[in-house]
């Protein structure tokens, strides 16, 4: 029996990326429109090229030109998605969607949201909240989610937002680490550079050790090249094991501090007023669950 599986199965997101990339003839501009990182756009294009067995763009240094095949595909995608979007709007206008899709980083989900998740769920009167997590928000198309916990609201200036967590950053260590290195309490600069644990902040502009030392008006150590943690929960676990000291964010480390699993060292600094925002799509007629979610975050905000 002939298979009824569509050849585009598993490629729908990549097809949407292709249409935007062809329209702009630019991967960076496609990334900007879609709210993705440029590497994520490149991965989608590479996936399609692998499945089709041919290049979809001619590359010349930093310039790309879509092939005729890519142009044909983009025209078909534009037609198909245009029809789907229209039907979607018509259906959504007459239904109450009892689900909210929320995007956030692994660190925020693990340290801030999960301890409160039962309370959030109970506040939604039976509606479902689906959490999408990632180590880099640039890899998620935020235009496809109802709300996202972000540190930069400029990517979607037309979406409303509320402040969640006041920005405050300070060094943290475990009790066993302080016992092994008691001198760090008087002078954090006394530690060997290899005992400073680093978090990969990507393109977020989040605080790093060099920036913290600059804002604290302290001379930094000569940091050697070292591995960076790409997920904050892993960094926090390393601190709790006594592997070294790291930067702690108000709101993310409060639970561990209250349980005595980590200790606060050195001065607090900040380079912004707010470290996290909840940004959401504008409320519409079917947005009861989203309104309840935003209200819950407003009440739970650490400001």
UniProtKB/TrEMBL annotation:
Classification via SUPFAM superfamilies: Periplasmic binding protein-like II (SSF53850), Winged helix' DNA-binding domain (SSF46785)
One Gene Ontology MF term: sequence-specific DNA binding
Answer whether the UniProt record assigns the keyword DNA-binding to this protein.
Answer: yes
Q: Which Gene3D superfamilies match?
A: Periplasmic binding protein-like II, Winged helix-like DNA-binding domain superfamily/Winged helix DNA-binding domain
Annotated HTH lysR-type domain ranges read: 12-67
Print the keywords alphabetically.
Answer: DNA-binding, Transcription, Transcription regulation
- Any GO BP annotation: DNA-templated transcription
Name the domain of life this protein comes from.
Bacteria
What does the sequence similarity comment in the record state about its family? Belongs to the LysR transcriptional regulatory family.
Q: What name does this protein carry?
A: Glycine cleavage system transcriptional activator
